[in-house]
Each structure stands twice: as structure tokens, then as C-alpha cells.
Amino acid sequence: MKQSNYHWQLPEEQQINEDFLQEIEKRGFSPLIGQLLWQRSIQTPEEMTSFLAPSLDQLHDPYLMHDMERAVSRIQQAVIGNEQILVYGDYDADGITSTTIMKETLELLGAEVDYFLPNRFIQGYGPNKAVYQEKIEAGVQLIITVDNGVAGHEALAYAKSQGVDVIVTDHHELPAELPEAYAIVHPRHPEGNYPFGDLAGVGVAYKVATALLEEAPAEFLDLVAIGTIADLVSLTGENRTLVTFGLAAMKQTERLGLAALFKESGVNPEEVTETSIGFSIGPRLNAIGRLDDPNPAVELFSTFDEEVAANLAALLNQKNDERKAIVEKITAEALAMVQPANQVHLIAHEGWHEGVLGIVAGRIMNETGKPTIVLTIKEDGSAKGSGRSVEALNLYEMLSSMNDLFTHFGGHHAAVGLTMPAENIASLQEQMNDYIVAQAIDLTKGVPLKIDEVLSVEEVSVAFIQQLRVLAPFGTDNPLPTFLFQAGSVNQIKRIGSEQQHLKFSLTKDAASLDAIAFGFGGQAQELENEGVKVVGELSINEWNGRKKPQLMVKDFAIEGLQLFDWRAKRFWQHPLISDASLYVVFAEKNKKILQQQVAEQAVTFESIEQIQQVIMDKQPKELIFVDCPETQDILKEITQLWDFSRIYLLFATPDEAYLNGVGSREQYARLFKFIHQHKQVDVRYKINSVAQFLKIPQNLLIFMIQVFFELGFVTIENGVLNKVEQPENHPLTESTLYQGRLKQIKSEEYLLLSDIPTIKNWLQS
Length: 766
Prior knowledge:
The protein is of the alpha/beta class. The chain has five domains: about 5-25 and about 450-560, CATH 2.40.50.460; about 60-320, inorganic pyrophosphatase (n-terminal core) (Alpha-Beta Complex); about 335-450, Roll (Diaminopimelate Epimerase, Chain A, domain 1), CATH 3.10.310; about 565-655 and about 750-765; about 660-735, Arc Repressor Mutant, subunit A. Helix content is about 40%, strand content about 20%. The chain is built from 27 helices and 27 strands. A seven-stranded mixed β-sheet has the order 13-14-18-19-17-16-15. The protein has a five-stranded parallel β-sheet with strand order 3-2-4-5-6, sandwiched between helices. It has a five-stranded mixed β-sheet with strand order 7-8-9-11-10. Helix 11 crosses helix 14 and helix 12 (about 275-290) crosses helix 14 (about 305-335). The longest helix has about 30 residues, at about 305-335.
């Protein structure tokens, strides 16, 4: 049995309205499309039309948002009065696009405008008092925040004391006490009436632009889509409309910087999707803010100079490559530091780059299934970093109860950022472990993975996958559908990649098959050689030389029932499986020598079924490893049926090579007998190899033959020296118990070494 990495959440059975199904059929969609829509709460023909064919007419009136009228009036006053306006943004993709839209809107109105994105390592996130002071002293008369501001109490209070108004446009969580701003434009403000609360910062900026320009400006839709996708806000309602039209606008973009970024990242503008933005454009925008000054990204989107656009796009690409290298290095180092016994992983190290620690924490969480906090320890003795959590644990709530350990702390259920004295790290780890136990929080299920539908291989076609695109754009709250497949068999398993780190295989059931690719699963190739494989993934189309084929992008897999692993090749003999869940069984004590010392010390030498049964009851193992072959194969079946093992590894090492060498031929025994009679004494302790070469008998077989002669009284052996017995009693070789045992051993090895794994598995379970 192999457990899934994620906690699979299967869809609940729902009764779909007959009229709804008829509408699906009328539109020419597969019934599966109807099921997916219904599960996403699209359950009437009207909702279906709105979802499948969004229109800009669906956009809400910006003046429904709190303080919009007040903000617009103040901005218009500043434009008329030629006041110096500062747009103060954020260093991520949402902040970059928000800043660009607000800046360009004000420029269209003829305003005197400048912009500033803080450096996360110098000014940090949100309004910075020192920057405000510098800009106000330089003549700024109005500050407009985008994608930040609702928590900027100190900086906003300073601006007010200097007679400078601040208009906050933001979408982040509203604190209990709001800052002293001239206006706060926020889709979830408690005094507002805006119907859609999930706008990104760029969506709020776009709404301000719409109000100022008295129409929804089509030229900004590309930026709205980028910021919305990159910020992982809900891709439903108004965001779905904005992203749909934004993606369409990108196909004919006149923005030189975006075109240059497409070229640099290898994205074809005519084929751009939310996936292209999420995995290619968004990371490049975020990378420059994670590692350096983010302001060039606004210049990239605003420039009318092709050379400047190309250079800035190359800079963002370079920063993204640097970011990826840093993430890979820190992730590898952090994973090596994971202590499995901890309920929450708290990993800290000197000199790690703080700009990528949230990414690293997310990776380790997905790898281990446990909440993770990753910190860098700084020269001043502080530790700073980020945490990511699974659904079962509200990370913000837990850490709030330990607030006295931190100098700075904030976040939400699934993600936090914090700064603390490094000396408090050990205490934090201890308190988190105690909290999980005290609250009886179950972290064993792993990260939740919602499954949309259970499909069979024969249901998948290129046409069906193409139909799935009607549900796009995909993202938060409208994810790309994830399907569960029960494979009849898994074939053509192949490791691929420069380091053999990925897998490619085929799921087959009856006459149908489905190609699958599993990134990062290279080390689990043998797992798939078992029956009962269940695979979860997303469907895509693989196009090669004009031919299109369905393909499953694997996210996880599990295997039900007993798993049998074929480790009969010598390369596995010293492959350790050390854990409380592993039981090594050796049938010949001398065969422990093939194992690594730490494994050999834990291995149990078989004496009787009763003895092994007691060991199993004491240890309660999940994994059973047979190191060598028993004299009779039925012993294996008896042992495997003593306990509900989930995994059995078959090494079946044969150092004596009984099956290969046999019991010896009459001619070989005659040759040995003649040699013994010709030599008064034979040093079998030190000269056995030379004797074997002289007699042309394999050394292991020669040792066995000498032991048989000794048992039958044909020779004596004392202190490693063999002597013949002058007039021994005549005995046939078959009277030797060693000889009889060897015959049984040969029969056992023949079956266990030559049978395929399915045959052995069926035999063990019969």
C-alpha cells in the first residue's frame, strides 16, 4: 500500500436538475462539463450564460465602492491644481500592475505624477514614514496608495500632520482600526456597498481608473489580468470577467514591455492563457521584487522605447533565473534539516535570502504534508521569514497565541510572515509542538487536494479536453479540474529528465490508454509496478508534429493493497530501509554480511514461525524485507500471512548461489575425492580459492561439497585443515542432510528468483 501525498477530497454526489442537463446538451457539451459546472455552483441557464460568456456589461459601478466619490473628487482637484501626486505601490506583480494603471490614468488626465515601489529589504511592505517624509519634503501634495495602505497608520498619520492627503486603494484584510486617510477605497469596506469583495489591488486601481475616465479603459485590461492572476485572488465573478477580457487583449497587445516579456519568457501572445501568466509572466514580475528594486518593472510596462523594453525584460528574466537557483539551493538545504518528529517544521539557517523563504516554506509543506516556517538568521541576531500551512491548522491563530516571541508578525490562516530574536527559535518549536497536541489537530492527512470527478481512461479524448477550456480562465475558486483514474495497469514506465527526476508512463484499461507524465516522481518508478494504482492529475493536450494526444499531468498517486517490490538485483542488497516500520528477516545468519552494518544490526534471523510472530507483535511493522531465500519457499507465505503488511521487499540474495551451482555432479565429486586422496592435507581455510581454480569447481559449490563429505564422514577438518579418512563407511550423497537441504534450497531459489512479481504476489496471497 502507498498512501497519497495529499489528502484527496472526492466530490459529493449531487442531483443535477434535468433542465440544466438539457441546456448542457443543447449547447453541445459533454455531460461531464455539466457536472463540473454544477459542482462550481453554476446551476441555472442564466448563471451558465454569465459564466461561459462574460461581458464587460457585468462590471459593477465603481461608485458603489466606499469613498470612491470622495477619492475621485480629490484627485480631480489635484489635477486641476497641478499638485504633485505620488502613486505608492507594492513590490509584487499586483503592486507593479496597480502602480502602472494608476500612473497612466493620471497621465491621461494631465496630472503631475510620480511613482514609488518600496524595496522589501530597505523600506519593507506598505507605507513607510521615512519615504513619505522624503517625498513630502520634495513637494508631493497628494499620495495615492495602490495594493497597500490599510495598515499604514504611522506613515499616514505623519502625512496628515504635514497637511498632505493620502488616498488608500487596497484589497488586503481590514484591521480593526483603520488609518487616518483622506479616503479609503476598498471593496470590502464595512460602510461600502460593493457587490464583489475579491478584487485584487490591480482590480481596485482599475475601478478608480474607470471612475476617473468615466468608462472602463480597455487599454488597461492586460495589466488587470496579470495582477489578478498573479495575486491568486478568486477567479470568479468580476475577476473572471476582467481576466477573460484581459487575456484577449494580450493577444493584440500594443504594450512594448509586455511584448518583450512574452518574447523573453517564450510565451506566444496568440496562445496566452492564465497558465502562461501564472507560470511565466507573474514569476518574472515577482522575482525582481523578491531580489532587488522593483521600480524598473513599472518602467517596463510604460516605456515606448523598444530597446528599453528589451533590456528591462531581459533584466526581469535574469532575476527570475537567480530566484529559481536560490530557491532550489535553499529548499535542498532546508529539506535536509527537516526533523520528522516535529508537528510543525521550523527551519532556520544563517544567510538564507529572505525574499524567497515563502516559496521554500510552501515547497517543504507540499513535500512533507506538514505546516512549515522557514527563517533566515541575520547578523543582528534576529530571524526573519515566512510560514505556510495546511487546511487543518490556522497558522495565524496558533502563532497569535505565541505573540510574545515575535518582534513583528502578521498574515492569515495559510500564510504568515514574522521576525523574532533567534534565541526564541527553540522555544517557538516547542510551543508549536505542544499546541498541536493540546488542540488535538490531525496533521496526518496532508495538504487537501480537491478532486472534481472520477474518470475512466476510455472517457478521455482530445475533444473532451478542449471542451474543458470553456471553464477557463482557471485559478483560485475555479481551478483546472482534477480527475481521479483507477488504472487497470500501468505500462511503459520510464524515468526521464537530466537527472532522471521525472516519470513517464501509460495508464491502460481494456483497449484504452492514457499517457501520463509525473514531474518530480522519478524516484518512485518501482511503486507503479504494482496493481491497484490510483492516479490523480490534470488533463492536457500533448501536440507533437501536428498530432494531438490526451495527456495526464500527475499530481499524486496511491496504491491499494499489498505492494511487492522486486529488489532481487544485487544493487539493492545494500539499499537500507531503516525505520521502526521495517522488519528485515534473514534465513541464514551468515547472509547478514551483505547488508550495511546498521541494517544488519536490526535484522532478525529466522528460527521459527513462533519466534517471528513474537517479533512482529512487538514491532508491528508495516514493511517486510526478505533478505535471502529460505530453504523452503512456504515459510515466506507463512510469515507474510502473520500480519497485514503494506509493503514487502524481495531481496532474495543468494551468496551461496545454490540454484546457479546446483549440488554438484558425479564427475565433480569424483574429481574432489581423487584430489583429497592425492593430498594428505588440504588447507581449506586459506587455500580454498586455489583448490577451486585447480579443480575448476565454483568456490561456493566446492565448500558445500566438502561440507557434505565431512557430514558423511569421508573427511575430517581441524583448524582449517582437511584430512581424508582412510577407510570411511560407504554412504550415498543423498543421505546427507546438507545435500537434502541443498535440493530444497535449489527448488526454493528457482521459484523465487525466476518467477515474476505478479506470480509471487498471487502465490503469497493465495
